[in-house]
Amino acid sequence: MTQRTKVAVFISGRGSNMEALVRAARAADCPFEIALVLANKPGAGGLATAAAAGIEPLCVDQRDFGKDRQAHERAIDAALRARGIQVIALAGYMRILTPFLVDAWAGRMLNIHPSLLPHYPGLDTHARALAAGDQEAGCTVHLVTAGVDEGPILGQARVPILPGDDEPAVALRVLAQEHRLYPETLATFCRGLEQGA
Ligand code: GRF
Q1: By the 8 A CB rule, do 144 and 10 touch?
Q2: In what order do the strands lie in the sheet with 153-160?
Q3: Is residue 119 annotated as part of the catalytic site, yes or no?
Q4: Is 113 in the pocket of ligand 1 (CB under 6 A)?
Q5: Predicted TM-score (pTM) of this structure
Q6: Residue 116 to residue 125: CA distance in whole angstroms
Q7: Which residues of the chain fall below pLDDT 70?
């Protein structure tokens, strides 16, 4: 196989999607490797999980940069370039990015969002789907562009909303699909990069 695509996963919390990506990358034919797990706060639980899996954890603490978001992103960008990272996978990264990082990584930054975009961008997606009486929920992997949760869709998975479901029930059902969809979609994306798509 040609060189695997070097991916940095960005997290702010527990990092279960990051873990799914790490697991997938262990397969011999996986076209990507997780070369870095980056968080914007030291409390992100996924940093320890990454370290335990033998992957470099890096916290670029947003508090060190005060209100200067771009300075924070310049530090992140420098860390990525120093490590030869080729693709960013946002996975529960809870800080809105400025055009600086979005433009620098245009076409090479993916995100997973827990709704069937374009429905329910932003937060509280499952609560809003339940309040609307929707019969299905799901998740979307998309390219990151300037608008929050707006970029081109690369893959989606749907699940039913069942009678009696509450928000945790829907979240759990969707999360199981996230863990399948993200590795699959990232693999397809990286194969496309290899072929110069
Ligand atoms: C997931 O639901 C993901 O879709 C959203 O944030 C959550 C992160 O969960 N962007 P985890 O940290 O991957 O467990």
Answers
A1: no
A2: 57-59, 32-39, 5-11, 87-90, 109-113, 136-143, 153-160
A3: no
A4: yes
A5: 0.97
A6: 9
A7: 1, 197
